[in-house]
Design goal:
- The chain folds into two domains: 244 residues, no CATH class; 138 residues, no CATH class.
- The protein contains 13 helices and twelve strands.
- The strands form two sheets. Strands 1, 2, 3, 6, 7, 8, 9, 10, 11 and 12 form a ten-stranded mixed β-sheet that branches. A two-stranded antiparallel ribbon has the order 4-5.
- The longest helix has 19 residues.
- The relative contact order is 0.18.
Amino acid sequence: MHIDIHVLHSVPYSNMNRDGLGSPKETIYGGKVRTRISSQSWKRAVREEVEKQLGESTVRTRAIATGVAEVLVGRGWEADSARKAGRAVLFSADATAKRAEGSSGGVAPDNGTDLSKVLFWVPTTALAELADLCEQHRDAIETTSLPDADGTDENGSAGDSVEAVKKPAKGRAKGKGAAKPEIVLPSAQVDTILRRRSATINLLGRMLAEMPGHNVDGATLFAHAFTTHETSVDFDFFTAVDDLKPSTGSGHLDTAQYASGVFYRYSSVNIVDLTTNIGDSDDALTVIDTYLRAFCSAMPSGKQRTTGAMTPPDLVHLALRRAPLSLAGAFEKPVLAGDDGGYAEPSRARIAHYTDRVHKFLGKEALLWHGHASVDDGYVALGERHDSLHDLITAAMNETGDRT
């Protein structure tokens, strides 16, 4: 069973998600250029809002070692000892990592750095747990060596440098760089802590192929948002006055790029998969409720300080289904502006008309319930009409709870 979220969202002059050249991202659909906001961009905003509401923050980082070291410094450790502890965490994790045949693989840091080779995603509380583990093995940690800038330890050998593991023994000078990193923390305990999950990890999934047992199959589909109509980039030439030399005219000038439009946004939550990931149906329903509200309210942060594009949705349509169903096809043919201008109202009419046609074409056997809330009058094809977004989500959760 799935709950689909369809949103029409009017966004004014903005650039919330830009490409490598600073331009708003685009896609071609129906032969016309549309402005696009990547799923990664909007998903991050939604994830952070869900975590804020649930009080379960996470970190996605290569700097696990630094994070643990900062915790330990805050507890009174010397900086060098704390850094050794952070690196010890990574070397212990590396002991359980998969290594491709014929290559180094692993997750341990490169020479002279404290950054892991992979991006971990863990609950923030995992940093404190790892620090607690380091406290239990402080004496062993403090006897290890830190690498110099060239990757060798203070005794002139590779010590805890990853190169000792990366390079095959053949071809190395005897006794030079032959030592593998010393494992001073119990690898199984480190691995258990790094496998911790949060509500958002269970919801969105986690991919870490290098670490057995760390992958989490997400329970959510999250589509890239795109405009329901054709768009073009708007170039803004701007200047900044030098307050101490106003007569010079400008201390800085440049060109920025922006776009605007009505976006179609779609996501779907597999309720069974999320319940399996979390292990409790009531907790899963709480996460879904929070996710629905966050999906409708959270906005990407890109250039928000210079555009303030913090708008609400124009229409939200929720559907409880046996299988997910995107309504993106409604906008394969770009929406044209109404007689008085504007794409929002024609877009709402288009999605209602398309939904009605799809239901007639496919039948409603897979549709268990649906409803909507909008800034204007109701659309019969979109199910029950609710006056507010809060009422719509509450009704959807009641229907979901009755069926789980």
